[in-house]
Fold these 2 entries.
Entry 1:
Amino acid sequence: MELDIEAIRKDFPILSRTVNGKPLIYFDNGATAQKPTLVIDAIENYYKHQNANIHRGVHTLSQEITVAYENARATIQNHLNATHAHEIIFTAGTTASINLLASSFSKKFLSKGDEIIISAMEHHSNILPWQQACEEKGAVLKVIPINAEGELLLDEYSKLLSEKTKIVAVTHISNTLGTINPIKEIITLAHAKNIPVMIDGAQAVPHTAVDVKELDCDFYVFSGHKLFGPTGVGILYGKEKWLNKLPPYQIGGGTIKTVTFEKTEYADLPLKFEAGTPHISGGIGLAKAIDYINTIGLDKIAAYEHTLLEYATERLEKIEGLKIIGRAKNKASVISFVVNGIHPFDIGTILDQLGIAVRTGHHCTQPLMQFYDIPGTIRASFAFYNTKQEIDEFVKSLERAINMLR
């Protein structure tokens, strides 16, 4: 059964607005996705009818919202097919999840001369925390190279793995290139040498089903706001055996069993990683977003978005002087491109005046821009509420912008 796109679009209030007098065409889903009414209503309902703190109150509101929050954790557990709910750690987002892991992991397991492996297509958020950990511990950051199409060179990756490697941290889907990496193979090769693997799933969870048991990843991270949920909330999944080994990252209220001035005993999972009052409405809103996409079906979402990717690629390839950056055989619905002689920012500015939202710049992947020797790209990233008609309007407007700037 095909998706009813018109009905789906009505679930997203912002899609009915205009920008600069034009109907909004939102092609910046890689930066953040729009929110369905179901999610917005859940957040509003929390503040109107349920607002209280969780876990420690004996009064009715606290008890009710604690149940709702922990039910949200269970929803995310089931969505990822994690073994235990306590393997789901709420954070402020993908960046916060990676910082938590890099800090706690390096404290426990990283020493001078050790190595950490990332890839050449990583977002800055999956470069900087590991880079900092290496600088603090005297360890070495190794990088999996890519080819011109934007695909990881797995033979080179295999050569990088050694007894010095303490963790591999790679993206599931590139936010700039749209490349879908062979995560299962990456994990299998690392596990053959007893090396844990963290997957940055920020760009993957909106487009594909993720089964952490099937992947056998040790850690998986993502943000709520790219998954049609609220900003300021994210997830760190970790295998129970690994999370139990790691020391707390931030400490304070909620992370303890007992405190004396002489010694503190920390709480069990997941609380030892969840200091302070969490983003309660965010967790609940994220669970509602997951319920929403599961009602539609991620298999249907992936199939439809692939048709958008193919259609947009075909249309863009016909524009003289336009070059698509990232031509991997296995891609998500993201297209980055440059136009000869025109800066991406100039094109993006004109498109905005025509009501079209795209992303321009380096997309927090400066090493990738250096690899391709370009200042940045124009990126159009599609979601299941976008249409071929919007792509037609985008291409027409893009051609207009190019003609104006040449």
Note: The longest strand covers residues 165-171.
Entry 2:
Amino acid sequence: MAHTMRIHKGDLVHVLSGKDRGKQGRVIDARPKDRKVIVENLNLVKRHTKPRPIQNTSRMGAAGMTPGGVIEKPSPVPVANVMVVCPVCNRPTRVGMKEREAHGEMVKVRVCKRADCGEEIDR
């Protein structure tokens, strides 16, 4: 089965369910195999980490250290729980696909499925 998603890295998304319901944020990482995305500053979890040396800091003597302690970091959110925000109408929307011609070849483009918008999401 092909692992494709209509949400890409850098998209602005609206969270539909979960503890951060109603909030918006940018997608930092998309994981099509897991059908999950990581959204900036949303779905934060606390992780207790040890201080560890950083490899290849600047090769100028002493190795740097990553700080230890309780660190908050975003965890993955299922793709079904987020919706892309259209850059034109600024509302959450379902994503459709259209083909258009660019430089003599057909290219698939994501479009807003709102009836009054219908603009391209990929600019």
Note: DSSP finds no helices and twelve strands in the chain.
